[in-house]
Amino acid sequence: MDFDDVLAELGSFGKYQVKIFLLISIPCAFLGFGAPATSFILGDHTHRCKIPFYDNDTYAVQSEHHREAINRTIPREPDGTYSSCTILVNGTEHKCSEWVYDQSTFIRTVTSDFNLVCDSVGLRAHLKITYLIGFLVASIISQIGDVFGRRILLLILCTLKVAASFTIPFSVSPAMFGTLRFLEGMSSLAFYQLSFVIAIELVGPRERIFTANLSKVTYCMGEFLLTLVAYFERDWVYLQLWLAIPGALTLLYWVPGLIPESPRWLVSRGRIGEATKIIKKMAKVNKSKKNFDNIIIAQKKDKGICVILREVAQSKILVKRLLIVTANWVVAAFIYYGLTMNVGSLGGNLYENFSLLVLVELLGYTVIYFLNKTGRKSVHLLAIFGCGAASIGSILLILFAENSMYWLHIFLALLSRFGISVLFAVLYVYTGELFPTVIRSIVMGTVSIGARIGSMISPYLYDVFDGKMGKMLPLITYAVITIAVGLCSIRLPETNNRKLTATIQDVTISEGQHKEVQEEGPVDTLPLTFNPTA
Fold this sequence. Notes:
This protein is an all-alpha fold. It is built from 24 helices and four strands. The longest helix is centred in the last third of the chain and has 29 residues, at 406-434.
């Protein structure tokens, strides 16, 4: 029998799987602190030049005398606000080198600590994406899980993340801060990807939706918690320390036997003896009545990762799937981070806006629990085309109602966020099911590289033009790429209620079986040794 048949015998989601699943999923809530925290620790801190002769100058007006000093010293912008970067000296406007910061939203940020304003604002933009660059490298590192195993890499990553998170508040320069944020981002995403792979490899086909997406729900819970903590703690140093504390619990993973190696991966690499020990323990915890002492698991000799990758390159089916799925990941990350990092464009209170976006994201993820009834492909296509339609609607609003129907602007922005959240959630499940076990971590890492490239480009798209064109360019880009990639995605097969394929040969057989079903109608039975993932 194959591994999915073994899971069916011992319980595809018994007490053993629940324990492991909770151990690796709950920390995903803490990962929700990382990238979103950028909006609070590297926020756009309102400022103006410091008055040279005023020793205790503050952004807030202290008295009428202070107001007069500000009016004499700080020039006005055309809209009536004080200049952020220039000061009047003997009636002549000059750039300044010292600033005071508004403390109504933030008390202290990385921006104010290192004066990342005016001529240094570009450095702040670069620091914002250091975390995302870490994501890019993580997408490469997580692929090592297919070579050396999931567990040891997971332990190294959780340790690195804890170390980086606790060191960030003590940064003494922008370079140190950027380096540590890079390490935090790299370890966080790689940890998340490996957790996801372990989760879906421990359960049967029908439980993949629940296991793959509950971690996303906990991630959203972490974002809500971040908003709450950030609301009460406006000093970035203490905020970062508060956010780092819960992550320290993952160091318990080092306790022997607490987190096992993925038995499905062990089987795929021919290490049946080690897999059998884990299966016996799983059977005992799940109180399975079947005797697994003499279990025979269908397997093929481990060819080595180089041979496997060469076979992937020669498989037209897998190459086509990889190109289409990677394009989907690029689009999803491009739009998601574009909307997230420009949350201020919604107007109003930062904390309220952020909470609203997270709520819509959470709703998007919960829709995925209907995938076992609707299938993956239909929801996937609806999400990506829906996001494109919302972008087109926003473009039309800017053209014909830029300064009116404000509620509709907000609604379409939230609809885009909802659609892209659904797309992200579907992609995590869909990608894992479209590719065989021997390359699943490598594929997840590869498509994530594309996603990270998209996420790093996205923030800069908002700074290309000013005015109406500056607002429309991101939306035009969103509309074009979602529709184009959506059309390509029509060629992907449905994977609902199908077993995970183990080898590249299984995928080829499965594709042929899928075509026969389409041409001749559904088959009544499938051989036990066949993994029917299209």
